[in-house]
Design a protein that fits this description.
Elements (H helix, E strand, L loop, with lengths): L6 E5 L3 H13 L3 E5 L5 H8 L3 E5 L7 H10 L8 E5 L4 H10 L3 E4 L4 H17 L1
Parallel strand pairs: 1-2, 1-3, 3-4, 4-5
Length: 129
Amino acid sequence: MEKTQKTVLVIEDEVDAAEMFAEMMRVNGFQVVKTYSSAPAISLISSEMPDLVILDVMMPDVSGLEVLKFMRREPSLSNIPVIVVSAKSMPSDIKTGLEAGASVYLTKPVGFLDLKQAVEKVMNAAQQA
């Protein structure tokens, strides 16, 4: 049975930001799973197999980039699109995020439209693959 509702995993340590991203995704018809810490994120990604991950870079425990690098090394997770959302907005930060395997790198604050467009872009690309 194919699941009709796509799942987004939001990994964001700021509760307000996580809730905002989750709400943006719900409005777009996604089922949302949230975690405020990157440590359980890897097992969550493996168990949930989300259609998309929204990932903050600066986390209190494990860097979001480490989570991203892990995903890209794991064959079962390597094709899941990841939208990195970070306050780190230097060109070098963005380059590092994209090189680590981010599908899209957005800098905070992220507007609803920017996130919606990024999600549509990566979901369409994933469907083409």
